[in-house]
Model the fold of this input.
Amino acid sequence: MEIVKNEKMNVNMLIAKEGYLLKDKNEVLEEGQEPYLTDKIYLASSITTIEQCEELWEEVKA
Done:
C-alpha cells in the first residue's frame, strides 16, 4: 500500500498494491457478512504515514 497525494482535490489517498484490496481492521461483521474491500481510501488529514495506515487497514489478496 502507498499514500498518494491528489493535488487537484487536495487530499491524500491510500492505494492498495496491484492484485490487493484494502480491508478495515476495525470493521465488525455480522455472521455470514462479507467484509468491505476497496482499492483506495481517502485519508483524514491527521493520517500522514504508512505506519498509521497499517494500524487501520490491511491489504488482502483480491
Remarks:
- Strands lie at 2-6, 11-15, 20-24, 37-38, 40-42, 57-61.
